[in-house]
Amino acid sequence: MSAVCGVLVAGLLVPAAAVSGSAASGSIEFFDTLPAELKVDPPNQTTRILAADGSEIANVYTENRTKVALDQISPFVKEAVIAVEDSRFYEHGGVDTTGILRALVSTARGNRQGASTITQQYVNNVLNANLAAEGNEDQIKLNGVNKGVGDKLREMKLAIALEKEFSKEQILEGYLNIVFFNRDATASRLPPGSSSAPPPRTSPSPRPHCWPLVNSPSAFDPINNPESSKQRRDLVLGLMLDQGKITQADYDAAVATPVETKVTPARQGCAYASTAPYFCDYVLHLLENNPAYGADLKERQRLIYGGGLTITTTLDPTAQAAAQEQVNASAGANPDKWGAAMVSVQPNSGKIISMAQNTTFLPAEGSFDSQVNFNVDKLDKDGNDLNGLGGAQPGSTMKPFTFAEWLNEGKSMNTVVNSAQRVYPLSFPWRHTCGKVTGGYSTAQKNQGLGTADDLQNAEPQWYRPLSVLEGLYNSINTVTFASAAQLDFCGIQKIVDATGLHGGLPAEGDPNPKINMSLLGNLLGSTQTSPLTMASAFATFANDGKFCEAIAITSVTDATGKQLPAQSTSCRDAIKPEVARGVNYALQEVLNRGSGSLIQPRISTRTSFPIGAKTGTSNNNGSTWVVGHTTGLATAAWFGDALGAQDRPGQNITVNGKFYQGIDGYMIAGPMFSNFMSRIAPAYGTEPFPAPPSNLLNGSTRSTTPATTAPQASQAPAPAPTTQPTQQPAPQPTGNGNGNDNGNGNG
């Protein structure tokens, strides 16, 4: 303190021209070389994540802080702080020399006394906040801990410079918004429900209720140390009385009031979201992965969690509530931890309307808890983490894309093909103008390797007969899909799949979102894992007359000053011909009217008055089941299956919500989820009739012969088809061709 006073006397109180002696001159030079500029950035503030209607989903923060203007803070707060911290605040120029000399005398007598003004404290808090914002918490300076004479002098000079640049009111406002009062609290904000917070001034002479101020906030915390807190409160009230800021009556009434607290613990983060915690988590991952928010993850997180951002999303709270209700009702917290998920997108914008699953983000008694998002990919396109499951085998929900290429090549959906064909040997003459088809279905060649499986199977033997391509799709018949593919260019099927945004949800061979390789025969029936969000977006292409729109979740981001930051915007492209999309929509409506989807209870096709199309899907071992479909205004993917580990548990002989299932198929659990949700929510997004396909895609009932020898009727159980297991998977998925049992009519 003596050293500080010596330098201050030389540097502040005595004109430089009148100072003699090397010590004084050296002190002046030292003081003058100290920096006089202070970077006053806004302190960390709470970020809010909002639904599309402006309602709050969640808030996130590193410090639970919301900036409040000085005129919005109780006058008793201002008066109390000045009384106890800096009674000459309006008289000094940043450094209180009287206070310094008084502190020196007190210290000489053995009584430690501080001498920092409110301006100095503000400077110190700003310096420390800047260090924290830069990730340099280890350099933070604290009085009595690691602050030396040089640090104190720098603080003083900065305080003087600050007083020249800002008014007293501006400094006081900044101080009250940044200084630490107790856990989770600045002067401008205390935990909700805390009775120690001063009420806003509502009458000419309100009674002051002041809480322990600044000095040792933890020691005087009213929650943990109520007696010490009361002593500190009464001391502050006494100073306010002595300085004429409150009356004797105010003082007497205030000190007679006990310290009582009613604390609501702060709950921040997506785990405590009011709705859609997994969507909330997805939004945060999108921002954390966006280079526009910082050079690296640490810098982005500082902005996201401390920048006081307002993030407006695409989420529809009404749709989200309905989706959550359905996944809970369909699967709930089943003890065997089977997963259920459902996601919806708007076809003409790509906006994610809802995203739900049957788990809790945090452990809770009787719940199935998981932090993994069942609806999204494991990684984004740049290889950044999305905290996603990475998808599941889509089964027969892949069949519409082969059907789309059939129409794309100008063929009628009523053309009859040889559905009895079951053998597709390694030498089969597939057509592929941009690659080579691999694998085969031939029991005779099974032991020859090269990815060959048993003869192709349907779920029931009556479907090995001539069938139209349309019948094959709406009844989900494996052999019809293969008989169709035998007349198509696999390069065209691949282009349809790629154009509609379909991709694998798990990384493979260094590719975070690998192509679904249609050269592998098993992928005709859905053997590569893909996510519900990917499937919903792909089906939305059919709803949008052939235009694919990238899924988006964030429509607007603003910082604490109102500045717009990069968000997402609708991005659409022509993917398939409109007439092809219309033909697919025609067929998918038949799925629900008289095909595999007609077994969904309640039947959506009979309980709604609007056009809707969908496709069921079931994996080879029933461990992954789906219904994916759309109206003109909303596309939804509903999934039920194994979300654990390698996802290799068969969905057979299991009990869900008290009901026993010999084998889970798409229509059984995913079906009602989809049906109930779309019946309730789809009308709000548009349910106009689908445009009719051109006559050439509908007319004709011609027979077409598959270029292979007809195989005998099926006599054995379904068998897996060839597939290539993606590499570098954190949770390898089961192989197979999707030869499930979706409805008793055909394959899932």
TrEMBL record:
- Record key words, sorted: Carboxypeptidase, Glycosyltransferase, Hydrolase, Multifunctional enzyme, Protease, Signal, Transferase
**Quick check: keyword Transferase in the entry?**
yes
Specify residue ranges for compositional bias: Pro residues.
197-209, 719-733
- Show the ranges annotated as biased composition (Gly residues): 737-748
Task: Give the reactions, separated by semicolons, that this protein catalyses.
Answer: [GlcNAc-(1->4)-Mur2Ac(oyl-L-Ala-gamma-D-Glu-L-Lys-D-Ala-D-Ala)](n)-di-trans,octa-cis-undecaprenyl diphosphate + beta-D-GlcNAc-(1->4)-Mur2Ac(oyl-L-Ala-gamma-D-Glu-L-Lys-D-Ala-D-Ala)-di-trans,octa-cis-undecaprenyl diphosphate = [GlcNAc-(1->4)-Mur2Ac(oyl-L-Ala-gamma-D-Glu-L-Lys-D-Ala-D-Ala)](n+1)-di-trans,octa-cis-undecaprenyl diphosphate + di-trans,octa-cis-undecaprenyl diphosphate + H(+); Preferential cleavage: (Ac)2-L-Lys-D-Ala-|-D-Ala. Also transpeptidation of peptidyl-alanyl moieties that are N-acyl substituents of D-alanine
GO MF terms listed in the record are:
penicillin binding; peptidoglycan glycosyltransferase activity; serine-type D-Ala-D-Ala carboxypeptidase activity
Signal sequence annotation: 1-23
A cellular component annotation (GO) from this entry: outer membrane-bounded periplasmic space
Which BP terms does GO give this entry? peptidoglycan biosynthetic process; proteolysis
Mind telling me what this protein is named? Membrane carboxypeptidase
